[in-house]
Amino acid sequence: MIKLNRPACPYPAALENGNYKHPRNKEALKNASFDKCMYCESKISHIDFAHVEHIKPKADGKFPELEFDWDNLGYACPKCNNAKSDKYYAECPYINPYRDDPDEHFFAAGTFLFIKNGSESADLTIRDIKLNRPELLEVRFTRINEIQKTLNACHRCTSPVLKQLLLDELESEASEDKEFSFFVKAILAAHAA
Ligand SMILES: [Zn+2]
Description:
Blueprint lengths: L11 H5 L6 H10 L18 E4 L18 E4 L1 H7 L21 E4 L2 E4 L4 H9 L5 H23 L3 H14 L7 H12 L1
Antiparallel strand pairs: 1-2, 3-4
Helix pairs in contact: 5-6, 5-7
Bound molecules: zinc ion.
């Protein structure tokens, strides 16, 4: 999970008219999280598959007043959205990347996401949204393995020009628009240490 910035709502009238997933607003949420799920950082290949996530759930009469509140909406993959479902704990809310800094609550070690500073919110987030589910471990492993190959090539490289190209490539792979960038950054930091 990475820190996200919430853009202004491009089409507030849709929310006022009771539509929380108007394409213009959904597109803005998509762009704000770089076409990735706000929780697991998976790229969501087609916008139709993405869910407009209610950070505080609208179901069971929990937060009906927030169903059309722009600040309560996000962009999530169906797996995370379904895992989170309508759960919410006022005394220990899930980490919300629009409000919280995930770097203060999580750290990545290999393919696993761990809690930092004993964050109970992070603990609940990982458990309930299943942020270490087997499919995620598998795709993160593939990603990390590719990064590791580039790192190895970089270490072996004798040409300064090629080495710089590889370093630039690695830096770009850790940028926030790339899938699982939280994990890629951790791998690069481990090698830089
Ligand atoms: Zn997800």
